Structures are given as structure tokens and as C-alpha cells.
Amino acid sequence: MKSHILSLLVLLTPSTAQITFQDSSSTILRTDNGTHGPPMEEYHYYHTQWPIGLAISSTGRFFATYTRGTYAYTLGEAVNKTAEKPYPSLSHQVPVSQLNTSWSDIPFGSNNSTGLISVQALYITPASALRPETLWVVDTGRPTIHDADGTPSMPYAAPGGPKILAISLDNDTVYATYTFPVSVHYPDSYMNDIRLDLRPSVTASGGGIARGRVGAG
Question: With contact defined as beta carbons under 8 Å apart, do 99 and 68 qualify?
């Protein structure tokens, strides 16, 4: 279970004012008087590791990403309000012992072009005639590592590590993977987010376009 208490709040239909959390002493800690929108549902709880990216499918499946350090997985699917499981499976997550390497004493992330290294963002596109409902996964390829004193740092990206994967939500399989040459994704680049427009009319090829946000550091 990846779980500091953080609760994910989801808007529901309008209703009357309600108490959303009250402790054992009857102290009201959260209320919704209805003036700022509909009441909120506490959808999922995290207790030790909070998420970075979130996505919910058309059928209500809930996915979350986590900065990769010593955790067994970086992409998970909620199985109840307090627990998650590796997604698509544990075997898709690059093992912690293989997350980074070094060249000439310079730390680099893994160059694994198929396994998940450190996922930052998610985006879901609906089913169409060309593709199933798809979970798009942005893998930075740059996990958090710690030195002998426990100080965290981020290694450079190795070619093949930073990538975008397309996962079919019909059968939970990866059906496309996109990596980047070093002329596009530099060692100190960091992919942050992605949006897609997959309408066939957008491009001559009919495949649509993807726009990402990339930083450096």
C-alpha cells in the first residue's frame, strides 16, 4: 500500500450543506455549505507516499503515479480507498536496483526503453475507431537517488529512458512506446506533462498530435 494523509476529492451532484469530516471530539474539521459548488467525496487516501499524476477512466478506474525512489512501483491502480497495486503489473516496473547507473562517475537513469522508471504524468483518451480507450504514460526516466548520507538527487536521463507509453484499458497491455533521440530530449531535460489531440483531421497522417511540457534540471 502506498498510502501523509492525503485524500482525493471528487465533485458530485449538488446537495445541501454537509459535514465532510468530524473527529471523535465532535469538532468539525471540514464543511461544505454549498456556496462554492457541490459536496465532495473522499475518493482515495494516501498515508506515506502521495501521488503526482492522476487519471480516471470512463469506467471509474483510478490511476496514480509516484516519484520513483525506493518504492517498488511508479504507476499504480487503486483497488480500494486505501490501497493500490502496480499497473499494468509489477513486471512492468524497472526494479529499484536497476533504476540508475553511472558513466565516468556521472549518475544517469536507466536506459530501459520498455520498463517504467519514474512516471510523472498520465492522460486518458477515449476509445475511437483507431484505438481503444488509452492511458498515456509519461516516464521521465529520471528517478530519485540517494547518496551515502541519504541526500536525494536526480540523475541525468539516459537515451531510451524518457518515453511515452500507450496502454490499452481494454486489456491492460502496452501497444505503443515512443522514445526520443538525444537531439530532442537532453540529459537534463525533464518531461512534465502531456496533452493529445487525436482527431484524424488534425494532421495529414491522421494520427493526431501530442504536446508535452519539458523542463530542465
Answer: yes
